Amino acid sequence: MDLSKIFQSQKGFFNSHKTKDVAFRKAALSKLKNILRENEQRLYDAIYKDFRKGSFDTFLTELNLVYKEINYFLKNLDKLTRPKKVKTALSLQPGKSYIYADALGVTLVIGAWNYPYQLTLVPLVTAIAAGNTCIVKPSELPENTMHLLAELINSNFPSNYVYVAEGGVPETTELLKFRWDKIFFTGSPKVGQIVYEAAAKNLVPVTLELGGKSPAIVTKTANLEVAAKRIVWGKFLNGGQTCIAPDYLLVEETIKDKFLKLLKDKVAEIGYNDGAEHYTSIINKRNYDRILGLIDPEKIFYGGRCNEQTLYIEPTILANVTYDDAVMQEEIFGPVLPVLSFRNYDEALEKIIEGEKPLAAYLFTDNEDEKDKLLSRVSFGGGCINDTLMQITSDYLPFGGIGNSGIGHYHGEFGFLTFSHQKSVIEKTTWGEPDWKYPPYTNKKMKWLKRVF
Ligand code: NAD
């Protein structure tokens, strides 16, 4: 398919104004929901072929989030699309003021591989809800899910409205040359830079959902049982390949040994064995080798086994890790949990602040002062107190990074705003025009002006 032709046809279709009709948007969202429902088993099979991700995990962490987003917009679209009446300043009287959520136009969504369904479909749902056309470029690494997404979308929607473009770097490079009305990218900070540069050439607005090293902190006041359980779940879900997973752990020195033992017990309890239905493999050999290269065998406290045939890496806990170790130099993006300890909480926060702003941060504590310090001092995308990952599941919270971990937000109304332009409009009466606006300007008018403003 000629991508440039599809892009041009989407421009033409957007300019027909059909995509802006709220009933049309709702019909497209309902149709997408039905397509996913009818093909759920195929979606499970494709992702299992790609990296042995089981159906429960796929429903919980992918399809569920897509359905939730569709339902949110089906329920709230009338309200979101209504012009919002706001106050009118005295200087603008007599008149009324409104904000219109204007569709942007032709949008591009580029997805990462680790959650191949929700990272492409949630932005697509949002683009549709906001009245845009959309081309989606999923990651080429999970090829079965990429083909299936292309088949399901392209055979059910006209390509001048919604289209899935298959491909890798060459195809994405071509797409990035077009003059989009919006690019929504999920992936690494390195590729985020390439996207941002390409967008800048055409002054295209971008949202960048990136990654980084997200810390989890456990202090001595925490409920350690709960902390261990929730950290193990958040870290090893999806084979540790989650952008907001706790990348590393900072544990207060006095409870370190006790906590390490609890972590080990929790991992063993779950049974993340090679071939276990609920344990996802590493996406490819390149990442498998990269992750194994981050494991210092002398620091393995638990785990360390692997299988090149199945790309299995056992959940691995590393103890006595320092900030200089290889595992602390890059985003791990795999099932390896380095544990560092701290004596002074303020210093632990300072170390986080010294690094790039993380996408997520998690604190396990029962101490208000510790909580306040984290929230007032450390800049991060989003996070939890006494939990991991769950911030991503709420429609009422913006999801996005800051600094090196991203630009902009989505989910629920935040996504709707991301995919629209807030058009400000003053509606004036044709009577009551103030004389002071017009020359000749006199001292008397100046006095008036100062009083009004
Ligand atoms: P990636 O940056 O390698 O790839 C993302 C997309 O960019 C893919 O569709 C790929 O085809 C395309 N791409 C790759 N190289 C390109 C190039 N040179 N030019 C143009 N396009 C190119 O990322 P990934 O490996 O798929 O995903 C892992 C990264 O994504 C991690 O850093 C992770 O933290 C981050 N991530 C962030 C979020 C989030 O919501 N913030 C979610 C998932 C993953």
Question: CATH superfamily assignment of the largest domain?
Answer: Aldehyde Dehydrogenase, Chain A, domain 1
Domain module tally: 2
CATH names the topology of the largest domain as Aldehyde Dehydrogenase, Chain A, domain 1
How many DSSP helices? 15
Present as ligands are: nicotinamide-adenine-dinucleotide
Structural class of the helix and strand makeup?
alpha/beta
Biggest sheet strand order reads 10-13-14-9-8-15-16
Number of strands: 18
Give the end-to-end Cα distance, rounded to a whole number of Å: 58 Å
Shape verdict: globular
CATH architecture of the largest domain: 3-Layer(aba) Sandwich
User: What's the main sheet like?
Assistant: 7 strands, mixed
Overview of the molecule:
- By secondary structure, the protein is an alpha/beta fold.
- It folds into 2 domains: 3-210 and 402-425, Aldehyde Dehydrogenase, Chain A, domain 1, CATH 3.40.605.10; 215-393, 3-Layer(aba) Sandwich (Aldehyde Dehydrogenase, Chain A, domain 2).
- The chain has 15 helices and 18 strands.
- It has helices at residues 3-14, 22-38, 40-51, 55-81, 118-129, 143-154, 169-175, 189-201, 224-236, 256-270, 285-292, 345-354, 368-377, 412-418, 443-452, and strands at residues 84-86, 95-103, 106-110, 133-137, 162-164, 182-186, 206-209, 215-218, 248-252, 300-302, 306-307, 312-313, 316-318, 336-342, 360-364, 382-385, 406-407, 420-428.
- Strands 10-13-14-9-8-15-16 form a 7-stranded mixed β-sheet. It has a 6-stranded mixed β-sheet with strand order 5-4-3-6-7-17, sandwiched between helices. A 3-stranded antiparallel β-sheet has the order 1-2-18.
- Helix 8 (189-201) links the parallel strand 6 (182-186) and strand 7.
- Helix 2 (22-38) runs antiparallel to helix 4 (55-81) and helix 12 runs parallel beside helix 13 (368-377).
- It is globular.
- The termini are far apart.
- The model has no long low-confidence stretch (mean pLDDT 97).
- The chain binds nicotinamide-adenine-dinucleotide.
- Nicotinamide-adenine-dinucleotide binds at residues 110-114, 119, 137, 139-140, 168-169, 172-173, 186-188, 191, 194, 209-211, 243, 331, 333, 359, 401, 406.
- Nicotinamide-adenine-dinucleotide (NAD) binds at residues 110-114, 119, 137, 139-140, 168-169, 172-173, 186-188, 191, 194, 209-211, 243, 331, 333, 359, 401, 406.
